[in-house]
Fold this protein.
Amino acid sequence: MAVTSRTRVGIVGAGPAGLLLAHLLALHGIESVVVESRSRAYCEARQRAGLLEAGTVELLRAVGLGKRLDAEGMQHGGIYLQFEGERHHLDFRLLTDGRWVTIYAQTEIVRDMIAARLAAGGVIEFSASDVAVSQLTSDRPVLSYLDESGVAREVSCDVIAGCDGFHGICRPLIPGLSVYERVYPYAWLGILADAAPSTDELIYSRHPDGFALYSMRSPDVSRLYLQVAPDEPVEDWPDDRIWAELQKRFAIDGWSVSEGAVTDKSVTAMRSFVAGPMRHGRLFLAGDAAHIVPPTGAKGLNLAFSDVIVLAGALRAALLGRSWELADTYSATCLERVWRATHFSWWMTSMLHVAPGQDPFESQLQLAQLRYVTSSRAAAVSLAENYSGYKPLRFEFSA
Ligand code: APR
Ligand code: PHB
């Protein structure tokens, strides 16, 4: 017999989406239980991207999650685009109404959110197994799982939030789902290195041998990526080979990538994926559970947070105000933003990567587009407003 309990919102997944949702609901006085299949240590160590739109930073500050972000985050007012051996700066502050972005690793945000939830007495069940959700079209959906000690538990909820990422269990439970997908013929090999970045802002470089991205985590730690084959074994990339390839793809006279000890190395596949509707009965999807963008546009985390802001508002109206109107428009509201970001991420990806055996016509189109965004103010404004956050969401939270 399972141990039964009751909460208002059952949340599957303690990634950025699930954790932020639990936090925002608590600010509205709405109780939740988060169930996560991985351990806390695993969730806190997972390396992901680290670029936050200004709107995301403002939200995190407003809800009391900005302390370490403000101390350790690095504000950037633009990016560099490099191609044909030349580096061009795009100044977002001049191209937009003064907008900026912040480098702060997703791993750190996850740590901050877990600490805040636990300090506030929130429930996060890590290392759960056999996680399942049922009775989604009733007004008491059920979240069931085996807890860390193997005890069977059943939580009766008002609503379930599927924040369980791309490989989660919730999305397949939505009947009549439409799925749109593009798998790219390349992947990113990402490294973390103990090396002071030799650039002040991110460099996106298109090189005939493939794309490279120069990012960072702190004044002493660099985060670098190389385009590689989709099935590339990480073992084929000893540190010397990585540095040589990075030096080549970022080469500029009188400048070099600063090298250091490599502390993390992994390969990430590149895909665009959108599934809708993001709701079925009392089940709502948020974040990577419903959509994936390739990391070139740095939109993944920001999009997940946008879903969660909309969902927290809709659940407040439904559970406290008994109005389901916002819940009814949740999917359409989110998908509009998701498709804008999907287009932007696909466009950045397609402009900067060189596919294996690429048609020379395609290469000339990419270069023409890169010359256009680095010479036309109109084109640069479009890139800058998408990158720094198109139509930032308004929110009403305060910690
Ligand atoms: N039961 C419980 N938890 C699960 C299950 C399951 N069956 N399946 C997956 N999970 C957990 C995963 O272990 C993970 O911790 O759900 C969480 C999903 O987190 P993310 O994959 O980080 O997705 P999300 O919270 O939507 O965050 C989106 O992550 O991939 C990046 O670029 C993306 O920055 C974006 C962000
Ligand atoms: C990162 O810092 O990890 C990062 C930054 C920008 C991107 C992708 C990843 O576009």
